[in-house]
Amino acid sequence: MYYDDLNVGDSASFEKTITETDVYGFAGITGDFNPAHINQRYAEGTKFGTRIAHGMLSGSLFSTIFGTELPGKGTIYLSQTLSFVAPVLIGDTVKATVRVSEKLGKGRVRFDCTAAKQDGTVVVQGEALLLPPRP
């Protein structure tokens, strides 16, 4: 979608079940081998009692939406703020949703971003600033 095609309130979602393979793959790509993510024995001693997925793994689902659906191909990611408000466990299904909150000057668009688990618990929330493609 182009800037002119977007309207405040437009939204899109992407849903993914977070697997052990995802967590190990994300650790390998980013170099974040925090034992809270990859070591079950260590994680059992944390307040979560088990391994948790990287917060940025859930946060990265917003990028999937922006680059493939809303606005889509050719979109430039300018900035992102995120708050990680609840843990994601291996096996949780996370639904990321973005919504156009404001159209700004110079072709920029602000989006509200929320990700929630299958039980409705919000796990990530934030805001993104994008530059959608122009015709």
Structural write-up:
The chain has 135 residues and is of the alpha+beta class. Helices cover 24% and strands 34% of the residues. The protein has a single domain, classed as Hotdog Thioesterase (Thiol Ester Dehydrase, Chain A). The protein contains 5 helices and 5 strands, in the order βαααααββββ. The protein has a 5-stranded antiparallel β-sheet with strand order 1-3-4-5-2. Strand 3 (93-103) and strand 4 (109-117) form a beta hairpin. It starts with 10 loop residues before the first strand and ends with a strand. The model has no long low-confidence stretch (mean pLDDT 97).
β-sheet strand percentage: 25-35%
**What is the first-to-last residue Cα distance?**
9 Å
For the largest beta-sheet, the strand count, sense and barrel status come to: 5 strands, antiparallel
Based on helices, strands and strand pairing, what is the structural class?
A: alpha+beta
How many domains, in number, for the residues? 1
| CA-based shape | elongated
> Which value, in Å, is the CA radius of gyration?
16 Å
SSE layout:
Elements: E1 11-17, H1 20-30, H2 35-38, H3 40-44, H4 55-59, H5 61-68, E2 76-84, E3 93-103, E4 109-117, E5 122-131
Antiparallel strand pairs: 1-3, 2-5, 3-4, 4-5
Short account of what is shown:
The chain is an alpha+beta fold. It has helices at 20-30, 35-38, 40-44, 55-59, 61-68, and strands at residues 11-17, 76-84, 93-103, 109-117, 122-131.
